[in-house]
UniProtKB/TrEMBL annotation:
CDD domains: HAD_PSP (cd07500). Pathway: Amino-acid biosynthesis; L-serine biosynthesis; L-serine from 3-phospho-D-glycerate: step 3/3. The keyword Metal-binding applies. It comes from Silvimonas amylolytica. It catalyses: O-phospho-D-serine + H2O = D-serine + phosphate; O-phospho-L-serine + H2O = L-serine + phosphate. Coiled coil: none annotated. The keyword Lipid biosynthesis does not apply. This is Phosphoserine phosphatase. Its EC number is 3.1.3.3. Its cofactor is Mg(2+). The gene is serB. Residues 4-44 form the DUF4072 domain. It holds the Pfam family DUF4072.
Amino acid sequence: MYRLVIQAPEIETPNLKQLARLSGAGEIQAVSQQAFHLIGADIANEEAVSDFCESIQHDWAFIPEDIHVRDIGLVVMDMDSTLITIECIDEIADMVGIKPQVAEITAAAMRGELDFKESLTRRVALLAGLDASALQRVYDERLKLMAGAEVMLKGFQAAGAKTLLISGGFTFFTSKLQTRLNLTRTIANELEIIDGKLTGRVIGDIVDAQRKKSELIRMREELGLRADQVVAMGDGANDLPMLHEAGFGVACHAKPKVQAEAPYCINHVGLDGVLNYFVTP
């Protein structure tokens, strides 16, 4: 059997009761005012639950009842527009007045309309000549964690999970977040800087969709975990392969293509909604 996890900023009791009826759940347990577990739900009723939740703008997920937060050994995250609210390269571009041009390429890549490596190469080239101090300004002035990010991370970390932040963004930001959030491992692209200025090039191979997938698999195998002990989160088309490699691959406030293909979706609550999938102590 499954627990049906229902989440939204506001949840009305009549809607909960209707969802219990639709799912065949026998018990309603409150996790918080914004999250409830409906125990004994039948996944065969998924379509009816999905349709109703879409009509009332609630997030939902069928989670096997025997999965506990302590069973999750690895949490893998994308950075831009997932762990943090911004696309770092777009904000860097804003420092030289070319944010619209760069953001247009970013959006097309995240929708899956452009090859990610090509799109990143094109975007980084537009930054050539920018003073490297702009990176610190973006971190200080614009980078904010996604709502619920710290609660989510602390919950999984307290239960013993390792963490991997893997990004098609830049090491300047992932390294700072690793220290700030006590992350186990971070992987990203390194911007080439010469004489204090961006050259418009990336050092080494670009972190793309295949790299994200392979690094998840590598760390999962290092830790001796099964797929159902891994949670992965992302928002762009380049995250889909890694989401499919995790037992719990979650599209977080994601592009339509990602929402359509990811196993799970969070649209109406913060990243703590992913932690709420699991029974915690």
